[in-house]
Each structure stands twice: as structure tokens, then as C-alpha cells.
Design a protein that fits this description.
By secondary structure, the protein is α+β, with helices and mostly antiparallel strands. It has helices spanning 59-63, 86-96, 107-120, 197-212, 258-269, 281-289, 327-341; strands at 4-5, 29-36, 40-48, 66-68, 71-75, 81-84, 132-141, 153-163, 175-180, 217-221, 229-232, 235-241, 244-247, 273-276, 293-300, 304-313, 316-319, 351-353. The structure holds 2-OXO-4-methylpentanoic acid (COI).
């Protein structure tokens, strides 16, 4: 791609690394590329960060044709800038977009765009342990037309934000989870396997209810029986049952997490048995009753590993590992963040130079 670069005249001041939080500060530039059915993808460019000119009739604003990704770039302990599994993130957008009738750039073009933006924003990649430059590639329908059909024009853009820990405070502070038995994140046959903005819209109401009741996030159950666990908050779910690590199998209602895949790979290498299989609420409660529910954690790009200290079934709490982060979750967090920062050898080729 021939990416045109227009730099800002005056870069913004950098926020202190201790105050980054998650997604609060945006860098000086963004990457943008447009699509029309006549021209295909064209005009790749990096330009000063600012509002996108969007027609009020644009498809994304009415019928929600929108998808996004989230990946991270790191400053290694050697100072070099590297992206973690950018190809897997790009491929996930390529795989998810057909369900929303959206065209995407190729995975290679998306990786190239992410690397180019990280190079332009090199000064924005924070140094401190636990920090990263979070990239948010986004795909939206821009054609101005109110008939209900797939749009004929799209924009793909990438914004970047320097981030600290997703939940604020200690990255590994265990979360308290409300088991949601009525509302559903994604039904079978729906959009759950695509990183569609709509899935996050569907999740907000239950998340707000859980917060009001004093919980951090919700455990999502399947939309048919409301008995099978699917995801936790915005993350994939892992449960250490005895000596076996169990995670729900991928389906059209579960997002194929890149961290989920990394955890499965690393856990198997550590000699653990990992099962991708259905897991019911009944099984979780029975395992807790006999003392076999050793650890529960969520996995996602933003938080990496988020230990679950408590699961609440209609106010009846199951406390996991005494409410403390479990050793397996801590070890996997240390391994993944070590690979990302270059202190643990990357034997899988997960890091890509910016
Ligand atoms: C992630 O864990 O990376 C997510 O999907 C959360 C994001 C929506 C902030």
C-alpha cells in the first residue's frame, strides 16, 4: 500500500504513564482507508487525529454495520516496538465481516496499516510495565442511503490510545461477577462470533444492572437454555476444574479471542489438559460444592487475564480461591506479558516488529 502521511503541526502533550487508564487519551494521528464498490479499497492515509466527516444518513448510524478490533503494540525492554499477534486480529475481522455483509481490506493490508501507525506514533508507546499502545481498527458503513441493505461505501480506520490496566488499579485484582440469567449477549445464529459493535450494545444493560448491584461484570449464559456459560464481561471464560482447564467451545455466539488462543497454547505447553467443551452452571456449582472449582478467569486483549474472585447466582455467591487471584492465572499473565515485553522468549512468532 502507498500510505500518504500527513503529520500534525503541533503534537499533543503526552499524559503521565501512571495516569493512562484505558482509552482516555488518543494519539496525534489515525489511519484511514475508504471503500466503494466501484473503486474497492483506496486512499490509505495517516492523518491528524480528529472527527471523521460522516453523512447523517450513513449506514452505520442507522443499521449498525460496524465492527472493531483491539490489539496492542509494546515497547520491549530493549526499546524496540512490537505488535502482539496482529495477523490473528486482522484475520478475525476478515472472518467476521461477511456475517455483517461488510467488505474488509486484506489481513496483510490491515497489519501493514497497524505497523505504519505505530511507527508514526512511536513516541506514544509507553514504557512502564503493564502499559501498551492499544490499537482500535474499526470498520463502518458510510454510504448515505436509508433503504435496508448492505451499504456500498465503507471506511476502515485505526485509532490508537496509550493504556495502563483495563480495570484501573492492579491489573490482577479479582473481579466479582453477576451471573445473568435473563439478558443474552449473543444468540445462536447472531453476531456473537464477529466483533460487532452491536454485541457490546447488547451487553451494556446487564453490565449496568450488575454494577448497580455491586458487581464488576456479568457472566453470560447461552440464549437457548440459559444454562451454559459463554463469556464473562467482554472476555472469554476459563475455569480450572480439578487439574483440567475448561473453556466453552467456539460457536457463532462466542468470540474467538486471540488471548483465549494464546492461553490454550501456553497452558498445553505447561502440561495442562485443556478442554474446549460446554460447561453448565450446574456443573460449576457442583464443582464448587466439592471443592474442585479451583480458578476462574477471563481472557481478553485489554485485561490479558482477569481473575474472578466471586460468581453470584441471584445473590448466592460462589467464592473462588478465597477471592484471591489463582496461581495458574497469575502464571499465564506473567508469561503473556513477558512475551509482549520481550522478557520471555517468543517461541510462537507472536511478535511482529512495528
Ligand atoms: C478486550 O478484552 O480486548 C475487549 O474486547 C475489551 C474491549 C472491548 C475494551
Amino acid at each position: 500500500m502507498d500510505i500518504q502521511v500527513t503529520k500534525v503541526a503541533t503534537p499533543k502533550p503526552r499524559p503521565p504513564e501512571a495516569e493512562l487508564g484505558f482509552g482516555r487519551f488518543f494519539t496525534d494521528h489515525l489511519f484511514v482507508m475508504d471503500y466503494t464498490t466501484e473503486k474497492g479499497w483506496h486512499a490509505p492515509r495517516i492523518q491528524p487525529y480528529g472527527p471523521l466527516g460522516i453523512d447523517p444518513a450513513a449506514g452505520v448510524l442507522h443499521y449498525g454495520q460496524a465492527m472493531f478490533e483491539g490489539s496492542k503494540a509494546f515497547r520491549g525492554v530493549d526499546g524496540a516496538l512490537r505488535l502482539f499477534r496482529p495477523q490473528a486480529h486482522a484475520q478475525r475481522m476478515v472472518s467476521g465481516a461477511p456475517r455483517l455483509c461488510m467488505p474488509t481490506p486484506t489481513a496483510e493490508q490491515m497489519v501493514e496499516a497497524c505497523r505504519a501507525l505505530v511507527r508514526v506514533e512511536a513516541d506514544w508507546v509507553p514504557k512502564a510495565e503493564g502499559t501498551a499502545l492499544y490499537l482500535r481498527p474499526t470498520l463502518i458503513a458510510t454510504e448515505a442511503f436509508l433503504g435496508v441493505r448492505p451499504a456500498n461505501a465503507y471506511t476502515y480506520f485505526i485509532i490508537a490510545t496509550p493504556v495502563g490496566s483495563y480495570y484501573g488499579g492492579s491489573a490482577l485484582k479479582p473481579v466479582r461477577i453477576w451471573v445473568e440469567t435473563v439478558e443474552v449477549r449473543a444468540p445462536r445464529g447472531g453476531l456473537g462470533a464477529a466483533k460487532a459493535g452491536a454485541n457490546y450494545a447488547a451487553s451494556l444493560h446487564a453490565a449496568v444492572k450488575a454494577k448497580k448491584a455491586g458487581y464488576d461484570q456479568v457472566l453470560w449464559l447461552d440464549g437457548q437454555t440459559h444454562e451454559l456459560v459463554e463469556e464473562v464481561g467482554t472476555m472469554n471464560l476459563f475455569v480450572l476444574l480439578g487439574d483440567t482447564l475448561v473453556t466453552p467451545p467456539l460457536s457463532d455466539s462466542i468470540l474467538a479471542g486471540v488471548t483465549r488462543d494464546s492461553v490454550i497454547t501456553l497452558a498445553r505447553e505447561k502440561g495442562l489438559t485443556v478442554e474446549e467443551r460446554v460447561l453448565s452452571v450446574k456443573e460449576l456449582r457442583a464443582a464448587h460444592a466439592r471443592g474442585a472449582l479451583r480458578e476462574v478467569f477471563g481472557t481478553g486483549t485489554a485485561a490479558v487475564i482477569s481473575p474472578v474472585g466471586e460468581l453470584s447466582f441471584a445473590g448466592e455467591p460462589l467464592v473462588v480461591n478465597g477471592g484471591a487471584p489463582g496461581p495458574l492465572g497469575l502464571e499465564l499473565y506473567a508469561t503473556i506479558s513477558g512475551i509482549q515485553r520481550g522478557t520471555v522468549k517468543d517461541t510462537h512468532g507472536w511478535l511482529v516488529d512495528a
